[in-house]
Fold this protein.
Amino acid sequence: MHIADPPSITPEPARGRRAFVLSGLAAISAGAWYRAPATRALQALAPAKDVSIERFSSAGKSEGVVRLPMVVKTEAEWKLQLSPESFYVTRKDGTERAFSGKYADNHADGIYRCICCDTALFDSTTKFDSGTGWPSFWQPISPMNVMKITDSSFGMVREAISCTLCAAHLGHVFNDGPRPTGLRYCMNSVALTFVPRA
């Protein structure tokens, strides 16, 4: 994970749709290092596609697979729903400071859900202390509920993890986790909501 401070939240200048699309396309064609937000912004202009996710109860029991339209909102709508820190991480692909998140040392039993759309993402039974300062898990609650996106920012190639239903940036996955998977899903606390097991 890269460590970055959230930018100060200031109103963005009003831009027309054409200028917005052209600036996004220019950034992509120029090979900008910060690709994911531009891609996400362009996706927001397209009709929402249907995705499959697995629903889970507050007890962590599967309630089956459902097909739903992706949650797509404008930047203004996300800003109304989320704290500035959660908006920065989930919608702008930011990263909270290590050891600053409220779930890094959370040892309670329950389910971690997406802060943006409430999709179940991780079960506390797969959480482990990675010593990194971010909540870490050795697998998601369901592989259907997260998606991997290649992240080539900061001169590195990594696998970013996003929520399948709303495309919220959650963190990254690394190959230095414990058994049985050997994976470390290194997540941002501000991208998650913890729900105690019922």
